[in-house]
Predict the structure.
Amino acid sequence: MMKKASPSPCGAALLLVLWAIAILSFAVLWVADLVNLELATKSAEARGMAARQIALSGVALGLHPQVTREDIALLNREVRPGETMRVRIRGEGARFNINQLLAQQDRIVLKNLFVLWGLDSDAADVLIDRLTDWVDDDIGRQLNGAEQTEYEAAGIVGAPANKPFRSVDEMGRVLGMEELAALKPDWRDAFTIFGDGKIDVNEAESDVLQTATGLTPEMTADIVRVRLGPDGEEATEDDLRFESVDQLNGWLTASAYPAGQAAARLSTESTVKRIDSRGIVGDCERLISVVAESGEGGQGSNYLLWEEK
Ligand SMILES: [Ca+2]
Ligand SMILES: [Ca+2]
């Protein structure tokens, strides 16, 4: 009688060993992946920390009283291979102080700026009324403004603040600002809540300069061209600085504003400066923005704003 073949114990053991090896291999690969991921995360963290350190050094450099925006080689350089510092020093007078504009009811400047950015004239008037209502007490209600009733109707509680803006971001909470933001996403760059409220003709971008002076875009471009010097680049040795607002008189006689009004808004230096310091390590970038004013007698700096991104 033939005996029925039974599975060989050796074959079964071999199969088991092969399975064990396969499972083990998968496990090893899985652990290796996990370790790689952790290493990658850690080195991204380390890169971020190194980038922040570089940005911090840049802030210290930018605040140093003897360092100026023309020190390009010092402020923009490779610290170590693959590690870069980029520091930009600007006078805060490049921006409109929104609280001062509203307190002085300098509507013409705000209106021209909003219209220049693409808002129609009526919408600009409404937005200025709403900005005014945000900062004033509720007694002097604006014609097209928005006080608590209008904000509540829009489902917004706790608005308006009825006091001066505490940040430029807060302006974004005013009803209608979203319409302006759609036309001019970087509207924040034209505003500040710091400084003496004068526009620094050595610092302002052309849209701010144009609306502060009431000059044509061509004339404003002329002023910027003179400022940049023959190389046409900002913050280089050939830059020309206006030492007095009188040096702009030739242009200002053509201002669309009443005589003297434009000059009264201008200055040739900023009491407050803004430092944007970037540390870049590989694909990691950290930006620290600081607004500071010099302490008494040039001693130290008073920080007005410290933002990190
Ligand atoms: Ca109000
Ligand atoms: Ca230049």
